[in-house]
User: Fold these one by one.
Assistant:
Number 1:
Amino acid sequence: MIDAIAALWSPLAPTPLLWIVVTVGAFLLAKRLNKACNKAALANPVLIAILLTASVVLATGQSYSVYFAGAQFVNFLLGPATVALAVPLARNFRYIKSSFVGLGLALAVGSVVSICSGIALVGALGGSRAVALSMAPKNVTTPIAIAVSQQIGGVPALTAALAIVGGILSASIGRHLLTVLRIQDHRTHGFVAGVVGSGVAAAEVSSLGGLAAAFAALGIALNGVVTALATPPLAALWH
Amino acid sequence: MIGGFFLLLACDLLGEALRDAAHLPIPGPVIGMLLLAIFLVAFSRGADPEVPPELERSAETLIANMGLLFVPAGAGVIAQTNVLEAQWLPILASLIGSTLLGLVATALTMHLAMRGSMGGAK
């Protein structure tokens, strides 16, 4: 039986098309599963899609490099998708002008604390330098996190997984934590979700309304810029 | 749709070219994003930047389905199982601890700064 599947599979395996179909199919299935779970943060569609795709690759005995040779065509779109974040950034530009001091300070402090505490905690617990550098940009939106990780010598795949799980974590606890701190302002809820939890938390916080969603979009794009600028010099402090 | 996609790819290319030429330590797509945002804000006449409908459609489609684009990179963890096995404690503790610290630091700073500068408007 296994041999029969392998015999059918192996002539298909070298084509990039196969792995694109597996990747997109896994994502569509994951979105359905997420809907069936009432869009719970833990049933994150990206996480499910990654687990499904990884299972298929492992079950067929293929290596990651064979998979990526096909899936790189999906991965390539991360570039234009990152550039597309300019649209929500420009659209919500007036909020930058009206809340300049609050946004600027929160961005600077939040970004530096996230980067440094990520590196320092890995180091303090005996983790390797490559893992520490992979941890540094984890709170920023995944495409930028992957690019920064590559730039500073981290492991991009590890950073991608950390960014997604970190986003799920922020989405699950962020709003409860802010309520405990007695913070109710929707602008703060939105911006914090965007800066620390990027896309996953931003989707969750947008249930508060348009103002929260606008500040979350700003948080994602602005922290993307700040983290891309600040991580290389901060990472150089750790040898 | 195609016109918008062209603009996104062109800004991405411009960002990569600038990064190469000036040896900037910032990823090319981030430079491209900044260039496009500056372009949109600088060429707006009203209070809010006007986004060409073509660009808006492409950008919204890409952003709404961004999750799909992380899957190839994320599936790379299967090549990292030895790192995860050997260093699961520093990875897990740092991810949780650093995310918590980031949330508290960002929220408190913005809360205090907004209260100071905006009179606590809701």
Number 2:
Amino acid sequence: MDVSKRQVGDVTILDLKGKITIGTGDVQLRNAVQEVMNSGANKVLINMGGVSTIDSSGIGELVSAYTTATNRGAKLKLYGLPDKVSDILTITQLITVFDVYDNEGDAVRSFA
Amino acid sequence: MPEEHRFHLAIGSRFENIELVQVVLKDCLQREGMNKDALDWVDLAVREALANAIKHGNEQNPAKQVHVDLRVDAGELVIRIEDEGVGFDPSQLGDPLAPENLLRPNGRGIFYMKSFMDQIEYGAGPGGGTMVTLRKRIAGPQSEAEAPRTESSQD
């Protein structure tokens, strides 16, 4: 998986691309979120649009990222979920936990 | 079923080997005529089963193998995945939909497998490790762009 970081105003965006699966993408996601949290970012947006596959380990990392951010008083949101990723979050009822947006504009404005 | 659509693989307990199984699985299921949606869900279920076998069964010991047996019988895909661990009791797992478990980072793999497949069974393999059997119909109306089943609990 590839992770790249960019800034839109005071919102830090992580663009994910590829597989978030056990042993590879899950670790990269954990490290990327940890890095932005340690840098003091408190508005974090994860662009899921390029995610081709996610497994339970990847889902677990998203949950950990959410709880880590919340515990630090930061906000972490998702946007651009591919249909299958949305289905996977839905069947475990996590779709109700995350703030999820269709597009980047709506997601960025939601932090205001 | 044509003999070439049955295979057995043995992989060392490394997560990267999951991708090797996926390549063979995808090729086989495409030749069986499984549509992409159904194939994606089977792919995910098999990923979960392999990850469990490597991580929990064989404790990532690369000297221990995970055995994968795939066959299609009367339009039903049957995949058996067996590790060389000490066995496992799935009844001890918590319900990932319970409010107290919703934000746990783990404990969803078997739930996903149950959601994506028609049936899964756990048992002891001939070598004493854990053997999980995954079943999915690939012929007939059930194979048409089937969405994962939603369940109210893990049982």
